[in-house]
Amino acid sequence: MNARANTGQPPRARHHLNNSHLDALEEQTIDILREVAGAFERPALLFSGGKDSLVLLKCAEKAFGAGRLPYPLLMIDTGHNFPEVTRFRDQRASELDARLIVRSVEDSIGRGTVRLARANEPRNAHQSVTLLEAIEEFRFDALIGGARRDEEKARAKERIFSHRDSFGQWQPKAQRPELWTLFNTRLAPGEHFRVFPISNWTELDVWQYIDRENVALPSIYYSHKRDVVERRGLLVPVTPLTPPRAGEPIVSRDVRFRTVGDITCTCPVPSLAANAADVVIETLSAEISERGATRMDDQTSEASMEKRKKDGYF
Questions:
Q1: Looking at the domain assignment, is residue 214 inside a domain?
Q2: Is 254 exposed, middle or buried (0-12, 13-18, 19+ CB in 10 A)?
Q3: Cα angle at 287 between 225 and 149, to 5 degrees?
Q4: Contact 228, 236 (CB under 8 A)
Q5: Cα separations (Å) of 106 from 123, 136, 190, 304?
Q6: Which residues pair with 102 in a beta bridge?
Q7: Per-residue model confidence as pLDDT tens digits over 7-46
Q8: 38 and 184 fall within a common domain
Q9: Facing residues of 193 across strands?
Q10: What is the phi/psi pair of residue 213, to 5°?
Q11: Is a pLDDT exceeding 60 seen at residue 171?
């Protein structure tokens, strides 16, 4: 979808989005992406096909030129992804002629390194195991991710260059200082970094940048009709993985997704926003964070997320 094509507004009317703070955020992100390319031997860019990773990929194009990414794209596939997102992921990687590495939680289940309590449980937490297996397989020494500090409190504790020990674990009290944007990239054998170039961006910044740069996204980020059921104040999408419970009426609503992840725990929000400019307006008035408004699982508390990150999560 062309985000600009449906705005119905002349470029002059939307000039306010071309502001200097986006230039500053973009410049910092590009500098970090180049720093990773220069400082590490085997980096990779974590790429889900979601909006944050697509913004990161846009900045990488600007940093190195289209079709010249110096590191592969890595996707940890839960097996519970929205098909619109995985199709778009593959399409975008092909357009950039980028190497796309996909490693699956399903394969980890087959190897016995991931064990599920129940068949359709959310698999977000289990991605840690598959990710650490991929790091060992390819000997990655830096993984670039699209996490932002405004998402939730545990992510706010991250440095931009977040050190991981030889077990892939994060120690929040042992992170290195980053004064004056100086990064300590020294590693001992077996260690690696998680690098978050858009740490200082907000959800609003991301959408303003998507609008300004005409970044293409999976269609489910914009308003569409979808069958849902209302549960605990959330709109749960009706899918084979998330069927309605007894007595829950199915309704068709105009919705969009603020974040895309595991189908079993990701909900849309009511919306008529048909393009990025419309989403910017909605985001300005949002009172609940994107994770708080869209996640069914109970794993996103600060304590739960911090534990997951210590165990190797993104």
A1: no
A2: middle
A3: 100
A4: yes
A5: 10, 18, 25, 23
A6: 75
A7: 444 343 344 445 799 999 999 999 999 999 999 999 999 9
A8: yes
A9: 142, 163
A10: -95, 0
A11: yes
Taking the C-alpha atoms of residue 244 and residue 252, their distance in angstroms, rounded to an integer, is 13
pTM for the complete prediction?
Answer: 0.85
Residue-wise DSSP of 77-99: E-S---HHHHHHHHHHHHHTT--
Same domain, 286 and 306: no
User: What's the distance, CA 24 to chain centroid?
Assistant: 21
Beta strand pairing status for 73-77 and 43-46? parallel
The gap from C-alpha 187 to its chain's centroid, in whole angstroms, comes to 25
Residues 267 and 188 in one domain: no
Q: What is the largest CA-CA distance in the chain?
A: 58
Q: Which helix (H) or strand (E) holds 55?
A: helix 51-64
Residue-range definition of the domain harbouring residue 275: 219-294
Query: Quick one: 187 and 104 in the same domain?
Result: yes
Query: With bands split at pLDDT 50, 70 and 90, how would you rate the model's confidence at 289?
Result: low
The count of domains in the chain is 2
Q: Distance between the two ends of the chain, CA-based, in angstroms?
A: 29
For residues 72 and 156, membership in a common domain is answered with yes
The overall average pLDDT reported for the chain is: 86
**Helix 276-284 vs helix 203-213: crossing angle, to nearest 10:** 160
